[in-house]
Write a structure and sequence with these properties.
This protein has about 475 residues and is mainly β. The chain has no helices and 34 strands. A hairpin with a 5-residue loop joins strand 28 and strand 29. The strands form 7 sheets. Strands 1, 2, 3, 6, 9, 10 and 12 form a 7-stranded mixed beta sheet that branches. A 6-stranded mixed beta sheet has the order 14-22-21-16-19-18, with no helix packed on it. The chain has a 6-stranded mixed beta sheet with strand order 24-32-31-26-29-28, with no helix packed on it. Helix content is about 0%, strand content about 55%.
């Protein structure tokens, strides 16, 4: 006759292990609970669920998650019945055990795990995922790895849980006898806080020098499971922008120099969200193209997934420089050939809102004039062949003015009448209003030819009846050509 083990109905054997960690205090709690029904549970050519083991939530600290599970079974297999052993064979290959836990069922020992037919008496089989494989042959007491199940699959489940052992016997005549079983659960409150960073920008695109600021919205979310202590993010300002303001959500504080760091002292709970808006101006001098900002979240709590702690956004900077052109002439009118040069004064103004890069103008010399010189304002350079092009390399700021004087001579042969000159302003920056980029001026060319007349006769005196010759001479004293 089989003798049952000492009754442990409802017994609990808690073991507490407290681990200190730099980010806080973690409690790793190990609790063992046992199901010990009265009498053996006899399983013969069937599968039977033993009484469930329940771990109340109070067995573990709030938020504790499973990190390890062991299952211990006290059992035998015998011919006859569990209460009265009979002579004969007990076929151990008929035995199977499955544990039903939170979220899944795991096979501890499948049919065929053991073989042989020797009566073994009571054995204690402990299933531990880290142990060695179950040896084939006659069952013996010991600690072994499940045959196909994986007890580690329960890791991460709440410590408060329910477990049920399913015992199976695949043929009649020699029952499987289960005395009791125990489940040992180790659970701890995770110290990790998985921070996730998000970053957006508005407006996009934004115009350099415009009245609209660029606003970054940075959002930090704690995906838990633990509180994040002193959660914060840092956002270095991109080159080409100027800090204006930083406004954090409730409880936060932000610095006002780059990198902008916003901090929420104390705990940010799991699922908690912290955010801030960082406003920057985009000066007129900022070049066109993309700028990228990156925000990085951290806390004093360990983070299991650093890859999602960083977020970036790229903003397109547009530039707009409204150039206008003015052109004057002096003197007007001017006399061809008089030796007085004609002077054009060309003035380029940047109406903004952005810097004009490499501002310049071109002025073709009118027909009937000859280039003499071109003198630009500071920083400029002019060509000396038509069209005369004057360029100011680099930036011309909004309200900036560039100018040049271009002198031309008016040869004596230049016919009288009007001549027009046109100057056209351009730059490497987009111009929103091309209509004012050109300016023209018209000069009146006058001509002046001082003619003198000479007349001589020969011979003088002359004899009547002979030929007298007159010689008439016209001279042009200038300064202009005498036409016709």
């Amino acid at each position: 006759m089989l003798v049952r083990a000492r009754s442990r109905v409802g017994s609990v054997s808690p073991v507490f292990a407290v681990l200190l960690c730099w980010a806080g205090i973690a409690q790793a709690v190990t609790v063992t609970r046992t199901a010990d029904p009265p009498g053996f549970v006899s399983v013969d050519n069937a599968t039977v669920s033993l009484p469930s083991i329940i771990f109340p939530a109070g067995d573990f600290p709030a938020g504790a998650l499973i990190t390890d599970v062991n299952v211990s079974i006290l059992w035998t297999k015998t011919d006859g019945s569990c209460e009265a052993q009979a002579a004969g064979s007990a076929f151990h290959n008929e035995t199977s055990f499955v544990i039903q836990g939170p979220g899944s069922n795991q096979t501890l020992a499948g049919t065929g795990t053991w073989n042989g037919s020797v009566d073994i008496g009571l054995v204690t089989t402990i299933f531990d995922q880290a142990a060695a494989s179950i040896p084939s042959g006659t069952p013996v007491s010991g600690t072994f790895r499940p045959t196909t199940g994986n007890l580690s699959s329960y890791n991460g489940q709440p410590g408060g849980s329910t477990w049920t052992l399913r015992a199976g016997d695949s043929a009649p005549g020699d029952p499987l006898c289960v005395d009791s079983y125990s489940v040992t659960v180790t659970a701890e409150v995770p110290l990790d806080a998985d921070l996730v960073m998000a970053l957006t920008d508005a407006p996009d695109p934004v115009t350099a020098g415009g009245a609209t600021n660029l606003v970054y919205t940075a959002t930090l979310t704690n995906n838990g499971p633990a509180d994040a202590q002193n959660a914060r993010f840092s956002l270095p300002l991109p080159i080409g922008v100027n800090f204006a303001s930083a406004t954090p959500s409730a409880g936060g504080a932000c610095t006002n120099v780059s990198p902008i760091t916003c901090t929420w002292a104390g705990a940010t709970a799991s699922a908690g969200v912290r955010s801030a808006t960082i406003t920057v101006s985009v000066p007129a001098a900022t070049p066109a193209g993309p700028i990228t900002a990156t925000a990085t979240a951290t806390s004093d709590t360990a983070d299991p997934a650093a890859a999602n702690n960083t977020a970036s956004t790229t903003t397109t900077i547009e530039t707009s420089a409204d150039l206008s052109m003015a052109l004057t002439d002096a003197p007007d009118p001017v006399t061809a050939g008089a030796g007085v040069n004609r002077v054009y004064t060309a003035t380029l103004t940047n109406g903004g809102v952005s810097d004009a890069q490499n501002a310049r103008f071109a002025l073709p010399i009118p027909a009937g004039t000859v280039f003499v010189s071109a003198t630009p304002s500071a920083g400029g350079a002019c060509t000396n062949v038509s069209p005369i092009t004057c360029t100011w390399a680099g930036a011309t700021a909004p309200a900036g003015v560039r100018s040049a004087t271009i002198s031309v001579s008016i040869p004596a042969a230049t016919p009288a009448g009007p001549i027009s000159a046109t100057a056209t302003a351009t730059s490497d920056t987009t111009d929103p209003e091309a209509a004012n980029n050109k300016a023209s001026t018209t000069t009146t060319i006058e001509s002046s030819a001082d003619l003198t007349m000479g007349l001589t006769d020969s011979p003088d005196p002359v004899v009547a009846g002979t030929q007298l010759t007159y010689t008439a001479t016209v001279s042009n004293g200038g300064p202009s050509d005498a036409q016709n």
